[in-house]
């Protein structure tokens, strides 16, 4: 019995009622549309974003290669260099590109290493230095986080648009009630005995 009352209460805007206004029906459609977009659109946006991120990470793993390199200068102790990050510091290195040409550039290496130390760097297809691609587990976590962020962003935007629509409908209702009260209000001003 209580469930049927609750159902009637939730769906009152859809039922025929002499007090139901056009704005009430519009509001019901706005709420339904907002929930549909949030649930279906948010899920779809999250899934597609996570899938696209997984493909990008897979492409990075396929394209990037680890290459042996040699430090050209010693790596200062962590935190002492101008371009240090945590326990890593920026140092000049030399490596061989896929076409066989020697190249030099700067990359982050563990601090405290001496010149001439062999290290491993990551390069792209053209032989330029790049960052290490994420492992499959790291890629899955990051893709999941990006998918969740996309779903929440779409849902938040949709909710905001829905709230703005309901605010506009509420303003219309209040204005309409005000106009109707100016017509009916004076008739209630006299006393009855």
UniProtKB/TrEMBL annotation:
Entry keyword annotation includes Transmembrane helix: yes
Record-linked InterPro entries: MT1774/Rv1733c-like
UniProt key word Membrane: yes
Residue ranges of the region described as Disordered: 69-92
Ranges that cross the membrane: 25-48
Key words, A-Z: Membrane, Transmembrane, Transmembrane helix
Protein's UniProt name: Uncharacterized protein
Source taxonomy: Bacteria, Bacillati, Actinomycetota, Actinomycetes, Kitasatosporales
